[in-house]
Amino acid sequence: MLEEFDDDTTDESTRRRSRRRMGWGRRLTVSVLAFLLLVVIGIGGYAWFLSSKVDRNLARENLLGDARSQTETTTGKKLVDDAGTNYLLIGSDARPGETASRADVIQLVHVDADHDNVWIIHFPRDLYVPVPGHGEDKINAAYAYGQSPLLVQTIQDLVGVKINHVAKTDFEGFKQLTDSLGGVRVNNAQASPKYAEGPLDLDGDQALEYVRERKTLAEGDISRGQRQQAWLKGIMSETLTPGVLLNPSKLGGVIDAGTQHTIVDEDLTTGTIRSEAIKLRGVRGSDIHFVTAPFSGYGTAPNGGSIDILDEAGMADLSDALRTDHMESYQE
């Protein structure tokens, strides 16, 4: 059983060191690419063609639900809706043919008002938080209880900003995206029975196995998150090369693979995507920053499940940074 930590024993300096140490770790999946590919469209010279392809591939559902009309949190605090743009990205564990699924990956992407920087905030799926109407539970339980709309409401309550759009994808999209690039090279920080430490070249099936592994790794989900981060870095590095961006066929294949298994909210129209992509055309890899939502340690829920304990002071800092559109201050 995991040792339980006392939230009160974590001082501010420890929290800041912890944020810097864990900022590049944790879990990321192809759902992030559904957003990053919008950046690619803005960078490349084929915006009309690619946006048409995106429109044909993307499915649209009511992923915002009642959260779309919310103006304040469930505790009565005003939701800020004019400090940048916020996208909730959900990675589903559904496989082809399955209808039921869990939110295995939860990312909040914040684009600052100037469209100069993108912040990707990972919410660990075991983060123990208030879920509207259901008391405290793991954050991914919000998705199980009420799918995307309740997860949106839960995160809006935590950070105090409006979520403008939602996108979700699945494992098949992950594999196809990797293969569309001819595979991906990752820097593996921790060896396992199948994968040696150091640079690895992985195809889609191998990459999926690589990022889902946790039982043979020293820190379980922590180590798995680091692997998924390594995959994302590899995908980003390859996608943003001239060999992809300046090759219509290659770029079209990447866009195709990244959107075929992606569902977005009904308000995220092709026109909106195109407009946002053009505004983001100057963004490069160094302008995309990774953060983990703050937690103070590990514990056990009343039902016996392992949880990540919410760092309430750290979450208040994150909320302030988002509400004022000054995310750079959060990592100082």
From TrEMBL:
Keyword field: Membrane, Transmembrane, Transmembrane helix
InterPro entries per record: LytR/CpsA/Psr_CW_biosynth, LytR_CpsA_psr
Keyword Transcription carried by entry: no
Residues of the Cell envelope-related transcriptional attenuator domain: 102-239
Transmembrane segments: 28-49
Keyword Transport: no
Family: Belongs to the LytR/CpsA/Psr (LCP) family.
Protein name: LCP family protein
Organism: Janibacter indicus
